[in-house]
From TrEMBL:
InterPro entries associated with the record: Adenylyl_cyclase_CyaB (IPR008173), CYTH-like_dom_sf (IPR033469), CYTH_domain (IPR023577)
A Pfam match: CYTH
Record's keyword terms, sorted: Lyase
Protein name listed in UniProt: Adenylate cyclase
Amino acid sequence: MDHVEVEVKLRVPCSQLELIANRAIQAGGKVEGPLEEIDVYYQHPCRDLKVSDEALRVRYVNGSPRSITYKGPREAGQFKARREVIVDVGSDPDVLLRQLGFEPAIRVSKARTYIRLGNVELTLDNVEGLGCFVEVESLRGKDEDVSAAIKALDIRGEVVNRTYAELVAELSSGSVRST
């Protein structure tokens, strides 16, 4: 799947995740999870993906490989927007990536619940070492879907513009404090 991802990430108190989930369910949201997700981000053998604001990720769900994802540079807009290409996998692509010279660089582990509600998908995340977050993503790539869902569900929190991989990297270097 190739599309433009439009989303916002908000840091929230962990005690708010259940309340937000209940509001979304009462509004007709369909729930999947909680799931254990591990995302492994890879370094390119010939260029620095951090410098070009790109990412290559393999996602494991409940211990099994689920997808490999390319994320392009962030685009201008009210919310974070970037090209995203997702390819579902049936077996672990790690061996292939390593043979091509890619190396695992960052590992993000989280408990995640997905809630699909109208034109948005909410993810309620408890990220190891970082705390709790809500991501609101438009399924149509539209800023107004994100804004409407935040307002309708009364989601309040600190907007976080960095990715989980960036936050984990900063935590590992000692420049970010866990909440």
